[in-house]
Amino acid sequence: MTDPIFSKRALLPARQTPPALTLNEFKDMVKDVNILISHNHYDHLDRSSMIKLPQHSAVFVPKGLKNYVMGMNKKNVHEMDWWEEIETGNGSKLICLPAQHWSLRINQGRNQSLWASYLLVTPSATLYFGGDSGYFKGFREIGRKYPDIDYAFMAATAYHPRWFMHHQHMNVPEAVKGFEDLNARIFILTQWGTFHLGSEPAGFPGLDLARHIKQNHLARSRFKIMDIGEILPIGWSSRN
To answer: Residue 143's domain spans which residues?
Structure first.
């Protein structure tokens, strides 16, 4: 699970759409869960959701967040620095990677904890979770160092106005360029349609990506713009 938030608000901004599952529905379905936290902003690290998720959950956080997250009813917290790897069992490993962003929380100073993206390498597929990031040359380095990424979960949200948002949030062309730099096989658009955090409507990025794909004659099969609650089976048959 990545950056879980089941709450109605991210500190102040209210949800525009409900979660696909309620927290109780999720807990009824899934008893054991590993949680990835990309950074400490309120739409990515929701205290209420974290407290209510199973106490024994394994939580992986960027450097500087371990003690803070342990205060959210979590005991099994692993703090990671960029480029650090952890074996997660069953032939899988998790790699903490750079991103271009920042951190701040009411009771944590600016940039007192790290922000990150992650690579999850499993026997059946390799998945890149981008967290929040502006476009940066690190995508090329990640793609060079890890050349077999199957799925890239790329955020394109809250990217207007560009003069203010360009450093920390990618617009759609930048997210696609980052995907190409990663040399990944499938692009999955994330972190849109829930909170109105930029000057564009919350649902705008999905339409923007569909338009970009058409205008630039990109292979539509490589891009997934998923509905709320849609399930996409993960696996890459050519790797088996």
So the answer is: 23-228
